[in-house]
Specification:
Radius of gyration: 19 Å
Strand order of the largest sheet: 5-4-1-8-9-10-11-12-13-14
Structural class: alpha/beta
Number of strands: 14
Shape: globular
Helix content: 25-40%
Largest sheet: 10 strands, mixed
Distance between the termini: 33 Å
Length: 313
């Protein structure tokens, strides 16, 4: 097995989380507490993988003083920094937690503009990283001016190096990425509904929609359903995973945690049933943490007893 996982974050961020007693829209809000964490799907996945003891290289584009802050954080987490610096400034995403209602409101910036020369330079660097990679993880929003076809292009690059890809995107980026046949995808229920163009009102409908995706060459589909758990399937099996009720503190990063533990499970060669329990436990463990903190391996293990996987027809 090759030695490391590569995660790609083309539109990274600093995630600032503030907690207020009650969010007063249009009024004065006093902050009870605040914290800032590096963000973006690929970076969150890298944090989870590092917390599981997996060697990981975080690649992508980065800019400005906030980008330098993000890079310093990666160094403290034993995550190899493989970002390419470009002009502009790394975006800041604001998460406002209403402590009274336990609801998080997200306000995300668009990010820096990326030119063709900068994107080509990133692709050149990624091709080198893929020489020794075992998995490539792609996910998150795209910067302005970057075409929705980019993930499909990166998946094709991974294919050329014999590297399996996990894709976590939405809308056109997800649809065009699937056309390039990633190994696994992790849409949430709404993203899957948008992908197949219809409402999915029960588990049978979700399984049928996911089977339409595996028929296109995707090996594993994980559909996250928030508090209702997840559906995990490949071309032969499907498991409906439920979770004992928890008190969620923040759902930010829960899906990214599922992706990170999916890759961990693949590296461990877990069965699909085991994988289903592990990835769902990861999402729940992160949802139980405040702000944009993500789970570590010990926390996932503690949640396994709260997860039940039932095989579907």
């Amino acid at each position: 097995m090759k030695p490391y996982v590569v995660t790609v974050t083309l539109n990274p961020a600093l995630d600032k989380t503030v907690v207020v007693d009650k969010l007063e829209v249009g009024g004065l809000n006093r902050v009870r507490s605040a914290r800032t964490d590096p963000g973006g799907k690929g970076i969150n996945v890298a944090k989870v993988l590092a917390g599981c003891g997996v060697a990981v290289k975080a690649a992508g584009l980065i800019a400005g003083a906030d980008g330098q802050i993000l890079q310093k954080y990666l160094a403290t987490e034993n995550i190899t920094d493989s970002f390419i610096p470009i002009s502009g400034e790394t975006r800041t995403n604001l998460k406002i937690v209403d402590a009274g209602l336990n609801i998080t409101t997200e306000i995300n910036e668009a990010g820096f503009a990326v030119g063709r020369i900068e994107l080509d330079a990133f692709k050149d660097k990624l091709m080198v990283l893929l020489d020794e990679a075992c998995y490539l993880v792609l996910g998150g929003s795209l910067p302005p001016k970057v075409e929705s076809s980019i993930y499909g292009e990166l998946i094709e690059m991974a294919h050329s190096k014999g590297v399996k890809t996990v894709l976590d995107a939405d809308d056109a980026a997800l649809r065009l990425g699937i056309a390039a046949k990633p190994f696994a995808i992790k849409p949430n229920l709404v993203e899957l509904e948008n992908l197949v163009g219809r409402k999915l009102t029960d588990d049978q409908a979700v399984v049928q929609a996911a089977r339409e995706i595996t028929a296109k060459g995707v090996e594993i589909v994980i559909v996250s359903m928030g508090a209702k758990g997840a559906l995990v399937m490949n071309k032969k099996e499907a498991y409906r995973v439920s979770v004992s009720p928890i008190v969620p503190k923040s759902t930010v990063g829960a899906g990214d945690s599922m992706v990170g533990v999916l890759v961990y499970s693949l590296l461990k060669q877990y069965s699909l049933a085991e994988m289903a329990r592990w990835v769902t436990a990861a999402g729940s463990a992160t949802a139980a943490k405040p702000g944009t903190e993500v789970c570590n391996l010990a926390e996932v293990e503690q949640f396994l007893d709260k997860v039940q996987a039932e095989r579907q027809n």
